[in-house]
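Researcher: We're teaching a course module on how sequence relates to structure. For the next exercise, students receive a sequence and then see the predicted structure as tokens, so they can try to spot secondary structure elements on their own. Here is the exercise chain.
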Amino acid sequence: MGGWWPVAGLILLVTAISLASRQATLRQLFRWLPVPLWCYALPIASVALHLLPSAHPAYAQLTTWLLPVALACLLLGVDLPAIAASGRQALAAAAIGAAGIMVGAPLGVWLLQGWLPPEAWKGAGALAATWTGGTMNLLSMRSVLAVPDGVFAPLIVVDAAVAYGWMALLVAGSARQHALNRWLGASWNPPQLKANASTTKMPRRIEAAARCVAGAVALTWAAAAVGSRLPTSSVVSSASGWTVLLVTTGALGLSLLPAVHRLAAHGQTAGSWSLCLVLAATGAQANLPALWSAPAWMLVGGLTAALHGTLLLLAGRRLRIPIGLLATASQANLGGVVSAPLVGAVYHQSFVPIGLLLAVAGNALGTYLGLLSATLARWLTAL
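Model: And here is the predicted structure for the students to work with:
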């Protein structure tokens, strides 16, 4: 089948999902089955029903070129100084939680490698990336590591099921926070975060968003030109993988420029929609039989979450970190920028901005942490 009509179909599908998620009568559904899961699952169903072709060059082209543009739009607006000012306890909790995930995913793959595909070590890296960062990092690792569909497809199910089950556990823990804080020996004095004092008049929203997207496209083009000249390996296995890594690093560096950071605030929506389209194109290419390995990957996810939670509690007791901050940091890892502030608010309103900042920090670092975790998993499974 020729033409780009499958891409048009994916755009309409993602648009419909986005509009439906904003309807008051459907919000509860999208709370427990999040938008990224729908963006991945509905194209699978559309292919099964022959509404979309199962193979089309437009899917790969969409993924290759739109993913780094989306990453740039999102990362150019990261406020690294504000993250650094979020407090020692908050940063310690986030770092310890991330360490538990980075070690837990490779250990789970190593223990269950007999029930997992041969390249499961790549799945450990992708799972660590999404649980220390978010969906954008999961998609980044798919490109960087060339994660096969047989490994990637179950991870979408595991990400949704374990992460939202974990969120329910964290919310339930708020009912016992006083007793848990006594056991931890913790108290909480929220840090004074600097407010954005900029009074610079911003361009009109659409114009600013267009300029941000143009900058993201330029950064992607430059990264692709450099990445095509860099050597590949078993970890960074393609020029497109180098492009993703270079865009991530370049965008974080440029975000330190105040003018770029202010402009990029209007590119977040474009970046989020672009990620949804990449996820939809990925779903259209999914390997359905691979979902049979989801139970084994679910065990990997459960073991990873258990080690993550255990390390956080032990560190919290040692460092006297309050349970509300531990829960907020944990959700910033396994959840993201939407759910981390929600979990924080259940414990105390002062945790809301902390949850947002820690989740954004995870988005910035998740790809690098996923690479480290994949390397560890590869080493363990080779023993």
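Model: If you want an answer key for the exercise: The two ends are 46 Å apart (CA to CA). The CA atoms of residues 176 and 323 lie 9 Å apart.
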